[in-house]
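From the methods appendix. Each design record in this collection lists the discretized structure first, followed by the designed amino acid sequence. Records were kept in a plain field format so they could be parsed without special tools. The example shown here is representative of the layout used throughout.

RECORD:
C-ALPHA CELLS (210 positions):
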C-alpha cells in the first residue's frame, strides 16, 4: 500500500511540475503532452516580394509597350500577341491579360469605346461585356483549372481603379487554399507562371471556345 501511495504522490508532483513549466513569463510558450502550441517568438507576417509591380506604381512599365494616351485604347491599335496580351476581340469589347496580375490568369474585359461612365454603356455594350466575361470564366476553367472567380469593376480612382479613365471588368481566378484576393496578407507561397506562357495557353483555349 505504501508503495502504491508513493507512486500516486509522485505522479501528482510530476503533473504540477509539467503545468508549471508550461507557463513561462509573458505567456510566450505553451506545451501539452510534449507538443508546442505556441512558437518560441511572436508570430511575424511573412513578406511576399513583388518588385516588378513597382513599374506600375511609378507609371513607367519597362516590360511592356510605352503608351502616350489611354493604355486600354492603345492596346487595340497593336497586333494581338505577346506584345499587347489581348486574348480576343468582338465588335464592342475585348479581353486582355493584366500585365500586373493579382494571381495567375488575371484577365480584364474592356469596352472598346473609351468611357469612364458606367451608366453610359449601351445595352449592346453591356451584353457584349457579359458575353466575354462568361467566355473568360470558361477559358480559365479549362486552361488553368480555376475553381472560383472574383469578377467585378472598380469605378473611379477613389474606388481603387488603376485606369480610371476607361472602364474595365476584372476576372480573377481562385483556387481552394489560395486564402484571399491578395495572398500577400497570408502565410502562403505564391507561385506564378510567366505571363507569356499563360497568355498563349489561355488564348488557344479561347480560340477553341469560338
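DESIGN:
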Amino acid at each position: 500500500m505504501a508503495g502504491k501511495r508513493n507512486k500516486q504522490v509522485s505522479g501528482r508532483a510530476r503533473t504540477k511540475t509539467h503545468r508549471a513549466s508550461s507557463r513561462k513569463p509573458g505567456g510566450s510558450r505553451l506545451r501539452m503532452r510534449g507538443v508546442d502550441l505556441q512558437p518560441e517568438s511572436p508570430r511575424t507576417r511573412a513578406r511576399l516580394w513583388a518588385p516588378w509591380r513597382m513599374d506600375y506604381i511609378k507609371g513607367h512599365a519597362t516590360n511592356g509597350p510605352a503608351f502616350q494616351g489611354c493604355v486600354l485604347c492603345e492596346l487595340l491599335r497593336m497586333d494581338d500577341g505577346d506584345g499587347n496580351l489581348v486574348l480576343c476581340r468582338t465588335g464592342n469589347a475585348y479581353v486582355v491579360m493584366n500585365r500586373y496580375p493579382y494571381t495567375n490568369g488575371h484577365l480584364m474585359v474592356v469596352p472598346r469605346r473609351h468611357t469612364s461612365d458606367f451608366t453610359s454603356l449601351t445595352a449592346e455594350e453591356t451584353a457584349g461585356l457579359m458575353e466575354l466575361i462568361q467566355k473568360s470564366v470558361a477559358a480559365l476553367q479549362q486552361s488553368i483549372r480555376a475553381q472560383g472567380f472574383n469578377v467585378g469593376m472598380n469605378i473611379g480612382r477613389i474606388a481603387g481603379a488603376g485606369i480610371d479613365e476607361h472602364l474595365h471588368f476584372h476576372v480573377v481566378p481562385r483556387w481552394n487554399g489560395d486564402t484571399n484576393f491578395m495572398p500577400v496578407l497570408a502565410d502562403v507561397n505564391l507561385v506564378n507562371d510567366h505571363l507569356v506562357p499563360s497568355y498563349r495557353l489561355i488564348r488557344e483555349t479561347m480560340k477553341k471556345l469560338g
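APPENDIX NOTE: The beta strands are 31-32, 35-36, 86-89, 93-97, 107-111, 148-152, 169-174.
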